[in-house]
Design brief:
Elements: H1 2-22, E1 25-27, E2 31-32, H2 33-36, H3 40-67
Antiparallel strand pairs: 1-2
Length: 78
């Protein structure tokens, strides 16, 4: 368990170091995060699409879980 925590910590430290060195550039020394941002209209389309589709996907998964509940057993394969 300690090794996993250490690995996650090491990855976070490396990512933080990488971001802090390159800030505010998304593409190193070429494009800032402001230049890389999508237009307001594009972001609005994405958020509306997400707001519509996320409940549909979650509802379908809940329905599939409900339909197949109890169908699986703990029988091990050969």
């Amino acid at each position: 368990m300690q090794a996993v925590v250490f690995q996650y910590g090491a990855v976070l430290v490396l990512l933080f170091g990488f971001v802090s060195v390159l800030w505010p550039y998304v593409v190193p020394y070429n494009m800032t995060y402001v230049e890389a941002a999508a237009s307001r209209e594009s972001q609005l389309i994405v958020i509306v699409g997400t707001a519509v589709m996320l409940p549909v996907v979650l509802g379908y998964n809940a329905f599939a879980y409900w339909v197949f509940r109890g169908k699986a057993s703990n029988v091990k394969g050969d």
